[in-house]
Amino acid sequence: MPRTVWLLVAARAINRLGAFSLPFLTVLISTDFGASAGTAGLLSAAFGLATIPSRLAGGRLAARLGRRRTIVLGLTGCALAQLGIAAAGSLPVVAAFAILLGLAFELYEPPSQAMIADAVAPAERVRAYSLLNAALAAGGTGAGLIAAALGRWDLRWLFVADALTCLACALVLRIALPADGPLRASARRGAGGQPVRPWRDRALWAVFAAGTVFALVSMQIVVALPLTLGRVGFAPADAGLLFTTSAVTVVAAQPALRLRRLAALPASAALALGYTLMAAGLAGYAVAHTLPALLAATAVWSLGDVLILGRAFSVVADLAPPGGTDRYLAVYGISWGIATTAAPVTATQLLARAGVTALWAGTAGLCLALAAAQLLLVGPLVSRTPRPRPAPAKTAAPAGQGPR
C-alpha cells in the first residue's frame, strides 16, 4: 500500500484508541449534572443528528479548502469540543459542546476516504478500505481498557485523553501528508464539465439506502448487545469481550481478502455473501445461551462485516465521477449519522416489546433481505448506470511535425 494509505490507517488507529469518551457522554450528563435519562438520551441524539451535516460539510470543504486542511480542521475541532465538555460547568454548556462535537466529528471522513481511493488502483480499493476498517477494530480493542482505567478516576478525563489523541493525529497528518489545496472550479466538475450532483445519481441512492440499513444493523448491535446479555444471565460488561472478539476477527481475516476466489467475486456477490454471514451470526444470538455460543456467533457476523465495509466504500468511489469522490463518499457516509440517531430507539423498543429472540431474529431477517436486495435491485442498477469518464488528455505533436 502507498505511504499515504499507511499514514491515514495509522492515524485512524491512534485516534480510535482514544475514541472511548462518546459512550460515556450520557453517563456524564446524568451523573455530573443530574439530568434525567430522557434528557441525556436527547442530547446524545442531538450529537448524532449533528454528524449528518458534518459529513456533508467534510466533502465540500475538502474541495474548497483542500483535503489535508479539512482533516486537520476536523480533528482540531473535535479536540476543542471535547475539552469544552470536560471543562463545562453547566448542562447547557455541555449540550452546546456536544453539538459542536457532532458538527466537527465527521469532517475527517470524506477527505481521508477520498485520499485512499485516489492513492490506490481501483482493484486495490477493497483491500485499502478493509485495512482502514481493521485499524479501527485494532484501536477499539485498546480503547475499552483505557476507558476502564480513566473512567474509574473521573469521566471528564476520558474527554481530555480523547482530545489529546485528536490533536496528536492532527499534528502528525499536518506534517506527514502531502500538501494540497482547493480544487479549481473546473476540477470540482465531473466529466464533460458538468457539476457533481450526487443526490441525482440513482445508483448512489440505491447504495445509500442499502448502506443505511447496514449501518442501522451495526449500531443496533452496539446498543442492544449489552442489554441482551443482562437479560440472558450474563453481566452487561461481558459485551466488551464480544466486541474484542469481533475486533480480533476483523484484523485476523484481512489476509483472506487476498484469496483469488474471494477477490474475484463481483461486488454485488461479495456484499450479498457478507450480509448472509451477518444474518447467520445474528441469528446465533437469538438462540445462544452459553458464552462459547455467543463468541462463535460474534465471529461469524464479524466475517460478514469484513466483506461488506471495504466493498461498499469501493463501490461508492467507483461510482463517483472525476473530481467528485469526496462528495460521493460524504453523501454515502451520512447513513451512519442516521443510524446513530435511530438505533438507540429501534433497539431498545424492539427489546422491550418483542424480547431478545425476536430482536435478533428480526435483525438477521433484515440482513437476509439486504442480501436479496443487493442481488436483485442494487447490483443490477449500479451495473446498468453509465459512469462518466474523464476526457482523454491531449498529447503533444511529435518533434518536427505540426498539426494537420
UniProtKB/TrEMBL annotation:
PROSITE patterns: MFS. Keywords: Cell membrane, Membrane, Transmembrane, Transmembrane helix, Transport. The chain crosses the membrane at residues 35-57, 69-85, 129-151, 157-177, 203-227, 239-257, 269-288, 294-317, 329-352, 358-382. It is found in: Cell membrane. This is MFS transporter. Pfam families: MFS_1. InterPro entries: MFS (IPR011701), MFS_dom (IPR020846), MFS_trans_sf (IPR036259), MFS_Transporters (IPR050171). Gene3D superfamilies: MFS general substrate transporter like domains (1.20.1250.20). The keyword Membrane applies. It is a multi-pass membrane protein. Its main location: membrane. The keyword Transmembrane applies. Residues 4-391 form the Major facilitator superfamily (MFS) profile domain.
